[in-house]
Design goal:
The chain is of the alpha+beta class and 412 residues long. It folds into 3 domains: 124 residues, Dipeptide-binding Protein, Domain 3 (Dipeptide-binding Protein, domain 3, Roll); 123 residues, D-Maltodextrin-Binding Protein, domain 2 (3-Layer(aba) Sandwich), CATH 3.40.190.10; 102 residues, Alpha-Beta Complex (Dipeptide-binding Protein, domain 1). Helix content is 27%, strand content 24%. The protein contains 12 helices and 20 strands. The protein has a 7-stranded mixed sheet with strand order 12-13-14-3-15-2-16. It has a 4-stranded antiparallel sheet with strand order 7-8-10-9, with helices on one face. A hairpin with a 2-residue loop joins strand 9 and strand 10. Helix 9 runs antiparallel to helix 11. The radius of gyration is 24 Å and the shape is globular. It starts with a strand and ends in a 5-residue tail after the last strand. This is Solute-binding protein family 5 domain-containing protein. It comes from marine sediment metagenome. One of its GO terms (molecular function) is peptide transmembrane transporter activity.
């Protein structure tokens, strides 16, 4: 199985910290008293207000975690938390766990959980709730490295031990990133598992700093502050209002008009650069917070040309990643030849990738019995439309005829 990485989109979020853009006619601001300025700085962040956010993609599921797509999990983060997460430097930091101990020799991982935390429905966060969430993922077959969990043992109220059949260094990432929802809220949501799952897709009951109060797919997602949040003094905001604006032109106009505070999943790099020139602040992200665009070949179908390893190698040689990254990313995208970006711990700096070589691609296709090429379909979201067009051209050059299938995020 060959996973073909294309580019890393670093332009994930656009945060407007200063919505007004000064003009030449504006007067200079009055002088500021230094003592008054120091007093204001000592006061710290100001509480209150609603952050207005717009998104180029939108969640289809905000509460049934085994089915979470990347967009779903991003929008659920204000409500649902994990055992641990990464900070901006790529260091794992505790969240619902305070610490953990890996014992590769004895094939165990023990999690020590944070005390005094409750879900939005008032039920306690504890080891049993943690065990239940892992079991939910295991039963759905959606937990990465879940096949290595032999058993889950609740040691005490706030300690749980995983007994494993094998160990690898990915496990803390994979297990620690499971998003924890209220077992009670889920179990009481219906008489059948199907009813409970359907309810959870539209309802988010976690331990996070905000609660979901309204969710309309492809329209709006509204959060209110959680007054019982376990982090002292947080959250600062009274709420968050997220609206779905898939058209980048409309989204950019909304930002420029000061009608939104943040634009997430803003992949229209030219629009972002234009807004940056007009005074809005752009968070270009890091390799840790980027989004990957990759080709996932249907190699499991024995009748598909993509089941042939030489065909998959030919596709790699047929694509000029640096050119795509430069053309569509305006220098802000990183071409990828492996699944880890240069900022990730798993990145292999001395990896020797297959270069762009269309002649080599044609040779491999001929060796695989596809000298005349073949037809295939690329399923993608609207966000990747331009990238698919580029792939269509590169693959067409070596005889692979691509039919784009641009889907809404739910079908995708």
């Amino acid at each position: 199985f060959l996973l073909i990485s294309l580019v890393l989109l670093l332009a994930l979020s656009l945060a407007a910290l200063s919505l007004g853009c000064p003009t030449e006619e504006e007067e200079e601001p009055p002088p500021v008293d230094e003592e008054e300025e120091e007093e204001e700085e000592e006061e710290g962040p100001v509480y209150g207000g609603i952050m207005k956010c717009i998104g180029g993609t939108f969640p289809v599921n905000i509460g049934y975690t085994p089915e979470f797509m990347p967009t779903d999990s991003i929008y659920a983060l204000p409500c649902i938390e994990r055992l641990c997460e990464w900070d901006e430097e790529g260091i794992q930091i505790p969240v619902l766990a305070t610490s953990w101990v890996s014992d590769p020799d004895n094939l165990t991982i023990t999690w020590y959980l944070r005390e005094g935390v409750t879900f939005h429905d008032g039920t306690p966060w504890n080891a049993e709730a943690c065990r239940w969430n892992f079991q939910l993922q295991l039963d759905a077959g959606r937990l990465a490295d879940g096949q290595y969990i032999e058993s889950l043992k609740v040691v005490d109220e706030h300690t749980i031990t995983m007994h494993l059949t094998a160990y690898n260094w990915h496990m803390i990432d994979n297990y620690g990133w499971v998003m924890m929802i209220s077992p009670t809220a889920f179990e009481n949501a219906g008489d059948t598992l199907e009813e409970r799952i359907e309810w959870a897709r539209s309802n988010s009951v976690g331990t996070g700093s905000f609660k979901v109060v309204d969710f309309q797919r492809d329209v709006v997602l509204i959060y209110d502050r959680n007054d019982n949040y376990w982090r002292e003094g947080m959250p600062y905001l009274d709420g968050i209002e997220a609206r779905y604006i898939p058209d980048p032109v409309t989204a950019a106009a909304t930002m420029e008009a000061g009608e939104a505070d943040m634009w997430v999943y803003a992949s229209a790099v030219q629009s972002i650069l234009d807004l940056e020139e007009k005074g809005l602040t752009v968070n270009w992200g890091t390799g840790l917070s980027g989004m990957f665009w990759s080709l996932l070949p249907n190699s499991s179908d024995p009748d598909s040309p993509l089941a042939n390893e030489e065909v998959r190698e030919a596709i790699e040689y047929a694509i000029d990643r640096p050119a795509i990254a430069e053309m569509l990313g305006y220098g802000k995208w990183e071409p990828l030849h492996q699944m880890a970006s240069s900022a990730w711990p798993g990145y292999v700096p001395d990896y020797d990738p297959r270069p762009y070589d269309p002649d080599k691609a044609r040779e491999l296709l001929a060796d695989a019995g596809y000298a005349g090429g073949f037809e295939t379909t690329i399923l993608a979201t609207d966000m990747a439309r331009d990238a698919v067009a580029a792939l269509q051209a590169y693959l067409g050059d070596v005889g692979i005829i691509v039919e784009p299938d641009i889907a809404d995020f739910g079908r995708y």
